[in-house]
Amino acid sequence: MKDTLGRExxxxxxxxxxxxxxxxxxxxxxxxxxxxxxxILRYEEILRICKGAVELGIHKFKITGGEPxxxxxxVDFIGRLKMLPGVKYVTLTTNGTLLYxxxxxxxKAGLDGVNISIDAVSPQVYQKITGRNAFQEAEKALYxxxxxxxxxxxxxxxxxxxxxxxxxxxxxxxxxxxxxRFIELMPIGCAGKASGPSVDYVYEMLKERYEDLxxxxxxxxxxxxVYFKSKMLAGSIGFIGxxxxxxxxxxxxxRLTSTGELKPCLSYExxxxxxxxxRNGADDIQLKNGIKQAILAKPAxxxxxxxxxxxxxxxxxxxxx
Length: 321
Ligand code: SAM
Ligand code: SF4
Prior knowledge:
Layout: E1 11-15, H1 43-55, E2 60-64, H2 74-83, E3 89-94, H3 103-108, E4 113-117, H4 123-130, H5 135-148, E5 151-158, H6 166-175, E6 179-184, H7 199-209, E7 214-215, E8 226-229, E9 236-240, E10 253-256, E11 261-263, E12 272-273, H8 274-279, H9 284-296, H10 316-319
């Protein structure tokens, strides 16, 4: 359905857990009480919400977290979601460290694509950012995903501390048909502990390496990334400039947190508690109205340029990115 500004909202990000086996400095607080299991939506509850969302024209879903693959039954849940009538695309975003052994199951479940978050290739830098020496696990899953034919993307958050890594990460798109996407650090949660450049800065660096870098004619993916190609690349390079190239006028999404809060916009704390509605006995029509209400509450734009306007206090691992 359309929001009040005429934007077609057809995409929902679903966080299925706040837990994670990594501890990226810009995402997870050093000390954090995990959300209690009772507060986390059960798979049945998420599927009920998705059924309502599909009826409102939401056909694309991204499964996220925390780290979605730490939750038991995640692969089976993805299969059930993909089988819901009207669901067209289900994709997953993961840090990749638990992915390798799940690839076969995810393909069988009908997963349409996977984004693997990798912020560094050098084990030392990877460990400094994520708190664990796990690059090799993510890399192994990356190669296996591409080999399996799953549409695969790499997500890299731009940080001052991974500048040495950008060209090495871009090189994956030279080796194989993956999109490597560079994402500006968004000022949410504990991102204040880190800082990073704009996508334009990185574009200039990559342009020196890939002289014929040019904007791709086709738009791909569900979101705001702008893609570039080169004859030296089998895949492409994407840029998500959430701060420097605000794309809110093309926003197509809402976000469901693991505790069942439906968020109209990333930067504001405002949300509709679908968990409370479900557990207070809402029927399907009431639930659908709750989803509609969140879509109609979407603001015109985020407020990342003025930190005082940001009212979202939850860390990113609780929201899902
Ligand atoms: N654990 C999974 C992963 O890392 O892909 C899924 C959850 S994670 C919150 C989803 C995405 O959000 C990741 O690509 C992560 O790098 C990104 N992210 C987290 N905090 C961010 C921030 N402050 N700014 C930009 N991206 C962020
Ligand atoms: Fe975990 Fe993903 Fe956040 Fe890193 S970005 S701490 S992998 S949820």
